[in-house]
Write a structure and sequence with these properties.
By secondary structure, the chain is of the alpha/beta class. The chain has a single domain, classed as Ribonuclease H-like superfamily/Ribonuclease H (Nucleotidyltransferase, domain 5). The chain is about 40% helix and about 15% strand. It contains eight helices and five strands, in the order αββαβααββαααα. A five-stranded mixed β-sheet has the order 3-2-1-4-5. Strand 1 and strand 2 form a beta hairpin. Helix 2 crosses helix 5 and helix 3 packs across helix 4. The longest helix has 24 residues. The N and C termini lie far apart (about 60 Å).
């Protein structure tokens, strides 16, 4: 279970921010990046890497956490069009920087889930599988994941044929079959296979 070991390690630098993303792999929808600052004595018996929690548990945690006055958080979204423009890794890094900036604090250290981020505008440490090690990263992961899931469930109302409410844009068998039948919608990432194949113009020669 994640704890505050990393947060305590960097406490002397000032404010410590946890950063994590959701939605780097799907074929559709935004990349969602959460940033969170938790109290120095923070403890929660349930919080873990958001991927290890059920959707119901994540939703309940999200609703609980947003009511707390002692947690500062933001979520930054990078839409599919920007993912296509700059590539998904760069889009994720941009989203991370935007999320931290939106907190409107001066961080002493940012704890980022994964590898270090090139040219990141704030002091940071990349922690592989950090959402299972750091409570602030795990908290950020819940904000990012639930925000994105809710966006995709809402998108399903506009594009019901794709089943976004079930797979959230990931490349499941049902999603791929819908793509083959209906082609991509505005939420699909044109740079991603197999969306790119379906976006190619027909050869009329």
């Amino acid at each position: 279970m994640p704890d505050l070991e990393y947060e305590k390690r960097y406490a002397s630098t000032g404010i410590v921010v946890g950063v994590d993303e959701a939605g780097r792999g799907p074929l559709a929808g935004p990349v969602s990046v959460g940033a969170a600052i938790v109290p120095e004595d923070f403890f929660h018996p349930v919080i873990n890497d958001s991927k290890k929690l059920s959707e119901k548990a994540r939703e309940k945690l999200f609703d609980e956490l947003v009511e707390r006055d002692d947690i500062l958080w933001t979520v930054s979204l990078v839409e599919a069009s920007e993912v296509d423009e700059v590539n998904v890794l760069k889009a994720t890094h941009l989203g991370m920087a935007r999320a931290v900036k939106a907190l409107k604090v001066k961080p002493g250290m940012c704890l980022i889930d994964g590898l270090p981020v090139p040219n990141f505008p704030y002091p940071h440490e990349g922690i592989v599988k950090g959402d299972g090690k750091s409570l602030s990263i795990a908290t950020a992961s819940i904000f990012a994941k639930v925000t994105r899931d809710r966006i995709m469930r809402e998108a399903a109302k506009s594009y019901p044929e794709y089943g976004f409410e079930r797979h959230k844009g990931y490349g499941t068998k049902a999603h791929l079959e819908a793509l083959a039948r209906y082609g991509p919608c505005p939420l699909h990432r044109r740079s991603f296979q197999p969306v790119a194949q379906l976006s190619l113009p027909l050869d009329e020669s």
